[in-house]
Amino acid sequence: MKENLFDPKPKVKQKKRLNVLPENPEKKEGIGRFPSWLHRKLPKGGNLLKTEDAVRGSRLHTVCEEAKCPNRLQCWSQKTATFLVLGKECTRACGFCDIDFSKTPNPPEEDEPIRIASSVKELGLRHVVITMVARDDLIDKGASHLAKIIKEIRKEVPSATIEVLTSDLSGDEQAIRTVLSEKPEIFNHNIETVRELTPRVRHKATYDRTLQVLSAAKGHCIVKSGLMVGLGETEEMVKQTICDLKEAGCDIVTIGQYLQANHKKLLVKAFITPEEFKRYEDFGHSIGIKHMYCGPFVRSSFNAEEVLKKVREK
């Protein structure tokens, strides 16, 4: 059996319930209507259908759809999408995520790398973001499949830059090396929340393991991570997380508002104001993080190409 060089087990026993954050005794129904800064106009343009046709025609999944991303219409209208690989069923059931859960998902599709590469070419993507479901059922956690996808994209569209948004790959150092050996421009793995809320928000991943995974990528490529706010964390907790990500080697940190995907998921505890997001952004820059991208609608892969450009300029 292959040795796992990282801590293979969470230190805190995970609960099966999804709504595990403590209820607000004054507002059990939640915190009410969306504030004004969470309203925006529908995007214009005729590219939305072109993006949808490219995705449907290649029988691909996107995290835009599976995770009910609030930016889907805007991104698709700009002919960009974040590909979700290794199926659309995850072997983890995190309290915030709307992707379907399965202990025994379907095997990886052998032609998926070619289909994705063809879609990248059809859409004319200059920057490609590939994310994945957690595949704890696979020996290498899906790393070799992800590596094949990078290879096919390089072959079909050599000029494209590639960003991978991986699971923690169960902390398997060899699996991480397998992905990094294909030299993606950005290695992204989200810490998702602050240390104190991690056992409640994430199903199996641990805070420290995420930091270890990010540290393993340091020096190989640009390292990126992100978290959600509005789950009950304090400002000091978020600032400590930013410090921990800096220490782990992150060049880019994204912070966005958590939004409840359905009634079974964790409740939103607070709507974070644009002013608070600006404080997080300023704090990250003050301690030396190359690029902070913070705001209500920010997601890990949102405007990813523009973020890469800004980091390279710096």
Describe the model.
With 314 residues, this protein is of the alpha/beta class. The protein is built from 11 helices and 10 strands. Helix content is 34%, strand content 14%. Mean pLDDT is 84; it is low at 1-29. The strands form 2 sheets. An 8-stranded mixed beta sheet has the order 1-2-5-6-7-8-9-10, sandwiched between helices. A two-stranded parallel ribbon has the order 3-4. The chain has one domain: Aldolase class I (TIM Barrel, Alpha-Beta Barrel), CATH 3.20.20.70. Helix 9 (235-248) links the parallel strand 8 and strand 9 (252-257).
Write the layout of secondary structure elements.
Blueprint (H helix, E strand, L loop, with lengths): L46 H11 L3 E2 H4 L5 H6 L4 E4 L3 E2 L9 E2 L10 H12 L3 E6 L10 H14 L4 E5 L7 H8 L5 E3 L9 H4 L5 H11 L4 E8 L5 H14 L3 E6 L16 H13 L4 E5 L8 H10 L1
Parallel strand pairs: 2-5, 3-4, 5-6, 6-7, 7-8, 8-9, 9-10
Antiparallel strand pairs: 1-2
Provide the descriptors you would attach to this structure in a database record.
two-stranded parallel ribbon, TIM Barrel, 11 helices, about 325 residues, alpha/beta, eight-stranded mixed beta sheet
Distance between the termini: 43 Å
Helix segment count?
11
> What number of domains?
1
Please report the total strand number as a whole number. Answer: 10
Biggest sheet: strand arrangement: 1-2-5-6-7-8-9-10
Structural class: alpha/beta
The percentage of residues in β strands lies in 5-15%
Average pLDDT, all residues: 84
* CATH superfamily heading: Aldolase class I
Q: Please, what is the oligomeric state?
A: single chain
Which architecture name does CATH use? Alpha-Beta Barrel
Give the % helix.
25-40%
